[in-house]
Design goal:
Blueprint (H helix, E strand, L loop, with lengths): L4 H8 L4 E6 L5 H15 L3 E6 L2 H16 L5 E3 L4 E6 L5 E8 L13 E5 L7 H9 L9 E6 L6 H6 L8 E6 L9 H10 L2 H7 L17 H4 E2 L8 E8 L7 E9 L4 E9 L4 H11 L3 E4 L4 H9 L13 H14 L3 E4 L3 H7 L23 H26 L18 H4 L10
Parallel strand pairs: 1-7, 1-8, 2-5, 2-6, 6-7, 9-14, 10-13, 12-14
Antiparallel strand pairs: 3-4, 4-5, 10-11, 11-12
Length: 431
């Protein structure tokens, strides 16, 4: 199998973690198979190829890999797992396994010399599974990884691509589809005519573009990310929302609220495999002023209340998702929601949380796709409930007080939220 020039450039590189952002039909599967075979025959090694699903691993790489290894393989097993054993140059054996990201837990506790992760941009809960499952499998062997993908918005693959700026073990490449000299130019021209400019740029030019149908188009890294809370900022309380999970991550934003009602999301908790009791212990240790959990987890809520956590009710109902999203949008528009640069999962979800594709002759579903939404739900709960509280308090105050002379009333305002109290003392002109 002969690699074209761009593939060969990647294959020759010696960095431990290689990240390849490429357009469709660039030849990433051929590159992946070449790298796995070369690694396998050099000396006894364990190698894994991971696609988003096992079926995709079978469809994308298995048939070609099986064909290329047919003559040399000591064994080829298709059930219950996709595995090939190849002889090494000096009489040893190497194992190549194919897996799906949906069952990534099956790799926990194993060791590998080379892992190829294909279509990285489509992997759900990437950072959690990379840090908790995949990265530890490389420790004993000082194993290497080849990450390959077409981009999908500014999600975790974008952050992974830019790790070369922070870590000398990483090296990234960007290749459009046209860098494959075997692709007919007229096919690329036809695709450009048929697709939207944004879709063509993402799929064939391999450009990082905002995902179509984004829920939070208002989110802007330049505007909404921070490294340090400005000196002199008056923090008045710490609050959190919680989206519970065990197989899926449990998401919790640690939010610091200042005197101007700007919310500073200073830390994120984003981990799977935590029991209700473990989460309750963690939340209690943070000493939040108020916590807004998903009401559909009564057992978890009971555990927190037993530990003295100030749990506030979150009311769901008709249009609650839509209304909560609108409340988050208003915060983003007003620049009242800031995210710390270290909160990679939160940033990833803001940049990938999307609505379903529009379908002709159908009304657009106003609820987003249930994907990349754990932190989005956890943030929405406190934003939504505080917005309701503020609106109710403002209405109550306006309808139950009368101005005296030319000043707004100077009565106690225990029920009025801090961010509205200043408004209670503004000058009211005589009519």
């Amino acid at each position: 199998m002969i690699l074209h020039a761009s593939q060969a450039e990647i294959a020759k590189d010696k960095h431990r973690f290689r990240v390849v952002c490429c357009g469709r039909r660039f030849g990433k599967t051929i590159l992946a198979i070449d790298q796995m075979k070369a690694c396998a025959v050099a000396k006894p090694r364990r190698i894994a190829y991971i696609a988003p699903t096992l079926q995709q691993a079978r469809d994308i790489a298995w048939e070609q890999l099986k064909k290329d290894c047919a003559k040399a393989a000591l064994s080829i097993r298709e059930a219950p797992r996709l595995e090939i054993i190849l002889p090494t140059q000096r009489g040893g054996e190497s194992l190549i396994v194919l897996r799906g990201w949906e069952a990534i837990e099956t790799l926990r506790g194993q060791a590998f010399d080379l892992i190829v992760i294909d279509e990285v941009a489509s992997m759900r809960n990437f950072w959690v599974n990379w840090q908790e499952v995949i990265r530890p499998t490389l420790t004993d062997t000082k194993g290497e990884v080849l990450f390959i993908s077409t981009p999908k918005g500014f999600n975790h693959f974008y952050d992974l691509f830019n790790l070369q700026d922070e870590d000398k073990d990483y090296k990234s490449w960007h290749f459009p589809s046209s860098d494959n000299p075997f692709l007919p130019p007229e096919e690329l021209e036809k695709a450009q005519q048929e697709l939207s400019s944004e879709r063509f740029a993402q799929e064939y030019l391999a450009d990082f573009k905002k995902t179509e149908g984004l829920v939070y188009k208002e989110f802007d890294r330049e505007k909404h990310l921070f490294t340090d809370i400005p000196e002199g900022t008056g923090i008045i309380e710490r609050i959190a929302g919680i989206d519970f999970g065990f197989t899926n991550p449990c998401a919790l934003p640690d939010i610091w609220v200042d005197t101007t009602d700007t919310w500073w999301l200073k830390e994120e908790f984003y981990e799977s495999g935590r029991t209700d009791a473990q989460m309750a212990e963690y939340v209690a240790s943070k000493n939040f002023n108020a916590v807004y959990p998903d009401p559909e987890a009564p057992a978890a809520i009971a555990e927190m209340r037993k530990r003295g956590v100030n749990v506030r009710d979150v009311v769901k109902g008709k249009d609650s998702i839509k209304n909560g999203i609108d409340a988050v949008r208003e915060r983003l528009k007003a620049n009242k929601l800031k995210i710390h640069v270290s909160c990679k999962n939160t940033i990833m979800e803001f940049e990938t949380y999307s609505y379903p594709d529009k379908k002709d002759l159908h009304n657009e579903d106003e609820n987003p796709i249930k994907e990349n939404d754990h932190m989005m739900d956890a943030i929405r709960y406190p934003v939504m409930m505080r917005a309701r509280r503020n609106a109710k308090a403002a209405t109550h105050y306006a309808t139950n007080t009368q101005p005296r002379n030319n000043l707004a009333p100077q009565q106690p305002m225990r029920d009025l939220p801090p961010e509205l109290r200043k408004q209670a003392y503004v000058h009211v002109p005589r009519m």
